[in-house]
Design a protein that fits this description.
The complex is a heterodimer of chains A (315) and B (446). Helix content of chain A is 41%, strand content 14%. Chain A has 11 helices and 10 strands. Chain B is an alpha/beta fold and 446 residues long. Chain B has helices spanning 5-11, 25-33, 47-57, 104-116, 140-153, 165-174, 190-200, 211-223, 238-253, 275-287, 300-314, 346-359, 375-380, 386-396, 398-401, 417-423, 439-444, and strands at residues 64-67, 72-75, 93-99, 119-121, 124-126, 130-134, 157-161, 181-185, 204-207, 229-232, 265-266, 292-295, 326-330, 339-343, 363-368, 406-409, 428-431. In chain B, helix 10 (275-287) links the parallel strand 11 (265-266) and strand 12 (292-295). The chains are: A alpha/beta (315), B alpha/beta (446). Chains A and B meet through helix 7, helix 9, helix 10 and helix 11 of A and helix 8, helix 9, helix 10, helix 11 and helix 12 of B.
Chain lengths: 315, 446
């Protein structure tokens, strides 16, 4: 029986965005079909995985299996980043400035900027720098980071509709890429991209962070918003959504109860390490299938599994 | 082309006899149009009309039932490619594999584990549903004995697999009352398997590599009078298998290509020897259109994350997941433990209860019915106000359980604290953090 594959017609493409500089710079985006539908479109730049590094020792904030691989470097972000690259082949590093949280250590923008600069100087892969999603503090911190790291072509965020002007201006001034973060809503994502455009930020310098939910804790919202985003970008020529997507999932996955419960506390959930790794890797799979281009992940084993999967699907 | 409800209604008897289970012929017609009812339910429709409607009213992807000890599970019946376009209706069923080549001890352990993998979440039971029994050497007696064992030890629905119809027949007879899914029909053995499935009235797996061969096989089997097929595209590489899942669903929904109007079965168990990669393959098929995923083993650390994923993907995006209103005890609270209140949006509950649990501070958590709205939305809609919270606190029964008269409200609902203090004069109202992640620090400093 004759059968012809019913094709989806795509009228748009995701714009390429290059992060970092030099030989290890990474280009994201460029897709001309739904994620991994390579039978009817191209995925010239495979999705990538960045590894998460905290600027302070996470200690008990992290489930034991997630901290275990980094026990010897936790508290030293430079050593930690280097370990990710050397031992685990990290293609990019995401430095999370947890210490600046005003509800926590409330470290100063200057100290955060100094840390970011030290890490940037010590590595040759692209550096992503994340604040704490506190609108006022991030504006100060990321501005200081942008300035201190002039020339490193960082990727900084999250930039929200309430602080995009301050952070956007700093990024423009020092040539960094921005992570535009909106709360799980296609229209708000689009709106923020438009605002950044009006400020003078080029599309080639924006990644979209749609806000990421972890497995069992709101993943479905991120999943559907990303699918809608991709649908609008690829089939409805919604130009302001044709940008690569970044998801910070490490923290969202590992902070939940089911990742923190030990084998003694939850024997019915199976081995804690394996469970946590799979919760992270499966969250990654869903985000990739929904349109994620760059994932920030925590556990080296989950990173490895995710990279294998990307290779099999897009390779 | 599909008919509208009104077009279908015109062809029905219009007697409103209710024998179809719907109150009126119009309601039945609407259900037919949206693929939620079958024409066979109407005893009075003429053969002529039946033929006319059959094509138009059949759902684009046939819902196929597989029996469990209690009730049956349905796969297929989907109507969209993306969950946000409506919803996905029938969650991918998760199966564990046992074979006749496997040692007794290994089989027993799997069956034992199968019954233990049951988790309660938002009042839903999350669990794997199926055991796939694979014939390894063509021994019908051994196969039937293994099927019998699965039936005795579990309440699972069954998938019976062999390339020999007589082996499957022995198993199907042993499992007759569970209404198993049988297979595997291929272009080579389609006559024998088709006849068996017809004779026993069972759903059948149709497997062929390549779209044209699979379409031919499905057409042949439906031509034999079979209605309930489950398609296996034969691909065991991830890339091709994903493409097949997309193509099969798209062909069924878009051009209404009938040979592909059936649910699918996917086999991560045959795609890799690495249990971690197998889990990831399974997760791809849960998101992308697998009706069934068959796993080589049943390990809680693998199955639990997949069950969570399935819950997420198949949750109806049109309805918020809600918790029932009431008092939730966290970390064994006593009469002096603090009382906190929040809304019944399931995600709010999960995150707040998870943080309280993580803090190890014993606490009474009051979950108020806000029709599934989150704190800020419920507050903005007036469903989480001084009045409503006070009324709920009074009737919740918390005053009998605790001597504490301190209540913590969400930071985003700080605005209600004045009204609440007025309504609950014996209580001290504390404003909690805005973000759940700050709850542990807050509780520890009380």
């Amino acid at each position: 029986m004759a059968f012809e594959i019913p094709k989806q017609i795509y009228s748009g493409a995701i714009k390429p965005v290059t992060i970092g500089k030099g030989a290890k710079a990474i280009t994201l985006g460029g897709e001309t079909s739904y994620p991994f539908y390579v039978f009817e479109g191209a995925m010239p730049n495979k999705p990538r995985v960045a590894m998460e590094v905290w600027d302070k020792n996470p200690g008990e904030d992290w489930a034991a299996p997630a901290l275990e691989p980094f026990k010897d470097v936790a508290g030293d972000p430079v050593a930690w980043a280097q370990k990710c690259i050397k031992d685990y082949g990290a293609e990019a590093i995401a430095l999370i400035l947890v210490s600046t949280d005003p509800n926590g250590d409330n470290a100063s923008p200057e100290s955060a900027a100094a840390t970011a600069k030290k890490v940037a100087e010590a590595i040759d892969v692209p550096l992503i720098v994340y604040g704490t999603s506190n609108v006022e503090k991030d504006a100060e911190v990321l501005k200081a980071v942008a300035e201190a790291c002039d020339g490193f072509q960082l990727t900084i965020g999250p930039v929200q509709d309430k602080n995009y002007k301050q952070i956007g201006a700093a990024a423009l001034g020092y040539n960094h890429t921005l992570i535009a973060n909106s709360p799980i809503d296609v229209n708000l994502a689009k709106q923020l991209n438009i605002l950044l455009g009006q400020l003078g930020v080029k599309d080639s310098h924006i990644l979209v962070d749609p806000t990421t939910g972890g497995l069992g804790y709101g993943l479905e919202y991120s999943y559907s918003v990303m699918e809608r985003d991709r649908m609008a970008a690829l089939t409805q020529e919604d130009e302001k959504l044709q940008l690569p997507i970044i998801n910070y999932l490490g923290q969202e996955v590992w902070k939940v109860k089911e990742c923190k419960q030990t084998n003694e506390e939850a024997p019915q959930l199976g081995d804690q390490t394996k469970r946590g790794i799979l919760m992270e890797a499966i969250t990654a799979v869903d985000l990739l299938l929904a349109g994620g281009d760059l994932l920030i992940m925590r556990h080296p084993e989950a990173v490895k599994l995710t990279k294998s999967l990307i290779q099999e699907l897009a390779g | 082309m599909a008919l509208t409800g009104i077009e279908i209604f015109k062809l029905l008897p219009k007697t409103n006899c209710k024998e179809c289970g719907f109150p009126t012929c119009l309601a039945f017609a609407m259900a037919l149009a949206s693929g939620k009812a079958e024409l066979d339910k109407c005893p009075y429709v003429s053969d002529e009309v039946r033929e006319k409607l059959a094509e138009a009213s059949a759902p684009p992807i046939r819902p196929v039932k597989i029996g469990m000890k209690e009730g049956a599970k349905t796969i297929g019946g989907e109507t969209v490619m993306f969950r946000h376009e409506k919803t996905f209706f029938n969650p991918t069923l998760i199966a564990g594999l046992v074979t006749t080549a496997e040692a007794d001890g290994s089989v027993d352990k799997k069956l034992d584990t199968f019954m233990k993998l049951q988790y309660d979440r938002v009042g839903l039971l999350l669990r794997p549903e199926l055991i796939a029994v694979q014939d390894a050497d063509g021994d019908a007696g051994k196969f039937a004995a293994l099927v019998k064992k699965v039936i005795d030890k579990t309440d699972a629905g069954l998938i019976l697999c062999s390339d020999k119809a007589d082996v499957v027949k022995a198993g199907a007879e042993a499992a007759a009352e569970r209404k198993p899914l049988i297979g595997v029909a291929t272009p080579d053995n389609a006559d024998a398997f088709g006849a068996l499935a017809k004779e026993m009235g069972l759903p059948l797996i149709a497997k062929a590599e390549g779209y044209e061969a699979l379409a031919d096989l499905a057409t042949k089997l439906t031509g034999m009078g079979l209605k309930d097929l489950v398609l296996d595209s034969g691909s065991r590489s991830l890339k091709q298998a994903l493409q097949d899942q997309v193509v099969i669903r798209r062909a069924a929904l878009g051009p209404k290509f009938r040979p592909f109007g059936f649910p699918t079965i996917t086999c991560p168990c045959q795609m890799t020897d690495d249990p971690m990669m197998e889990a990831l393959y399974a997760s791809v098929f849960i998101a992308k259109y697998g009706g069934i995923v068959v796993l080589s083993d049943l390990d809680a650390a693998v199955v639990f994350p997949l069950l969570l994923e399935r819950l997420n993907i198949f949750t109806d995006p049109q309805k918020p997941m809600i918790m029932s209103q009431g008092i939730y005890e966290i970390n064994n609270p006593g009469p002096d433990s603090p009382v906190a209140v929040t809304t019944n949006f399931a995600l709010t509950y999960f995150i707040v209860s998870g943080e309280i649990e993580g803090s190890k501070v014993p606490c009474w958590l009051l979950i108020q019915d806000t029709e599934g709205l989150s704190v800020m939305t419920a507050w903005a809609a007036g469903k989480f106000s001084g009045d409503t919270v006070a009324m709920f606190v009074k009737k919740s029964g918390i005053m009998d359980k605790t001597k504490t008269r301190t209540i913590i409200i969400p930071g985003y609902a700080a605005g209600i604290s004045g009204d609440l203090e007025e309504e609950l004069p014996d209580w001290k109202v504390l404003i909690g953090p805005r973000e759940a992640s700050h709850i542990p620090a807050f509780l520890k400093n009380l």
